[in-house]
TrEMBL record:
Organism listed in the record: Flavobacterium xanthum
GO MF: glycosyltransferase activity
Transmembrane intervals: none
The protein, known as: Glycosyltransferase involved in cell wall bisynthesis
Pfam families from the UniProt entry: Glyco_transf_4 (PF13439), Glycos_transf_1 (PF00534)
């Protein structure tokens, strides 16, 4: 069986990490399954894949409908005799549909990795209900519920949690956070990992830090954020400066293998207003780092407030600040939180489990079920 994975994303994030993990796991457990990844030439995902043994092909994508990318899909489908084309983002769906109009392609699988609703527009609904899409692999039950509102054949919807790859964990980093930024041992490092995109809502992060530092006068926290800068970054930096928080929030930008820094955090904080389930939560579970998060997307499916972490409504900086203070005013809770999270991770949320569930769906399509 040959799977052609298509990614039209130009950054590196949890969705791209999922593709990488899926290919690694299937190569280890089912070497008879060949995985080929088509990604955007010279972008971060291509740079990442070039350092692996995953079969990688590239094409330019100057705009979202670049004909060169479309032609490459057709060429690779024939070259590798693909049995299934696995689409990993909305732009990939469009490119594959166009390619299918010129050269009949094998069946599609689409991974729905976010909880964004599908827009109720004719063209968008046509795209997501394209007849060649045989399965929708949803990252959470919440993502499945939201997606179902726009999908005609709801039997095609399946939930497969992505999880984390426990065999590739590494704690090597180019520097130690406490040493590089001279953080006193009494100060808690609150880590935030994510690219500067709207869904991550780092405006709420800044509001939360302002409450902790400027209003409540807490001096025992430092917030270190890792992730690619975007056109939103300048406004975030300006907000930090206006609130005199330059020493309290550090934006480190893109760091390869950012999750390797997680063991250096005292807690992970997520302020997202929309999510599927962020990969970084699973990785924090593995490293036994407590998580404080907004309760968006599928996050409440893996974190139960007060049982294995702390949750707050989206856009609620006051409550997030309360949860941060509560956690470190009651540090005896941390051991139980992280123990439950690690146990759940090993039982339900590893990439080996994800890969076998995905392979089951591939086989059902190839066998005509």
């Amino acid at each position: 069986m040959t799977i052609l994975h298509i990614s039209a994303v130009k950054s590196w994030g949890g969705g791209e990490n999922h593709i990488e993990n899926l290919c690694f796991e299937l190569a280890a457990s089912n070497p008879e399954v060949k995985n080929v990844v088509l990604c955007v030439k010279d972008e971060l995902f291509h740079q990442r894949l070039s350092k692996t043994n995953i079969t990688t092909e590239t094409a330019p994508l100057a705009i979202n409908l670049d004909v060169r990318f479309v032609l490459k899909i057709i060429k690779l489908s024939k070259k590798y005799k693909a049995d299934i084309i696995h689409l990993h983002d909305p732009s990939a769906i469009v490119l594959a549909i166009i390619a299918d109009k010129f050269s009949s392609l094998p069946p599609f699988v689409f991974s729905k990795k976010t909880s964004f609703p599908i827009k109720n527009k004719k063209g968008t609904l046509y795209k997501y209900n394209y007849s060649k899409i045989k399965k929708y692999l949803c990252v959470s039950e919440e993502t499945k519920r939201i997606t179902a509102a726009s999908i005609i054949d709801k039997e095609k919807l399946v939930t497969i949690y992505h999880g984390t790859n426990i065999s590739t964990k590494n704690t090597q980093t180019p520097f130690l956070l406490r040493e590089k930024f001279t953080v006193d041992p009494s100060v808690k490092i609150i880590g935030i990992i994510g690219n500067h995109i709207r869904a991550k809502n780092f405006e709420t992060l800044i509001e939360t830090v302002n409450i902790i530092v400027n209003i409540r006068k807490r001096t025992n926290f430092i917030f270190i954020q890792i992730g690619s800068h975007t056109d939103r970054t300048d406004d975030l930096v300006a907000s930090v400066k206006n609130l005199n928080l330059e020493k309290n929030i550090l934006f480190l930008g893109y760091m390869p293998n950012a999750s390797n820094f997680i063991p250096q955090f005292d807690a992970l904080l997520l302020t997202s207003q929309s999510e599927g389930i962020p990969q970084v939560i699973y990785e924090s579970f593995y490293h036994k780092i407590p998580v404080i998060s907004t309760d968006v997307g599928g996050i409440p499916e893996i974190i139960e407030d007060g049982i294995n972490g702390l949750l707050a409504p989206k856009q609620s900086p006051e409550i997030l600040a309360n949860q941060l203070e509560y956690l470190f005013n009651n540090e005896n809770l941390i051991a139980n939180f992280v123990a439950i999270s690690k146990e759940n991770l090993m039982k339900y949320y590893t990439t080996s489990i994800m890969a076998q569930k995905t392979l089951k769906e591939y086989k059902s399509i190839v066998n005509g079920n």
